[in-house]
Prior knowledge:
By secondary structure, this protein is α+β, with helices and mostly antiparallel strands. The chain contains 4 helices and 5 strands.
Amino acid sequence: MFLKSTYFTHDELKCHCGCNTSAMDSNFLVKLDLLRSILDLPLIISSGYRCPAHNQKVSFTGQSGPHTTGKACDILCCFEKAYKVLYLAIILRFSGIGLAQKGDPGRRYIHIDTLAAPDHPRPRVWTY
């Protein structure tokens, strides 16, 4: 079941493996919509929900990574837009922020999540 978002569709947030699942967390979607509203610019989601099997194939986090919880997404952005997304992600208190800002500008992204992980102190920022 897809929860309603003001700015993002089921297709934008669903798993890319073909299972058509988009089990996004409602609190995460509210925060993602708020980020988009304040930014007042379109956002391209390169990866939203991932089913455990797909996450195992594409991520070192295996079958239980942040995307499998519906509490994470990757936003394609670079340069000034990346700066603005990073700034707002911090202001809005996303608990995990991953920066991938090297290489081809069209493939750069920022990962944001709202995880609370006892084994990893939060808030947390990292680079890829």
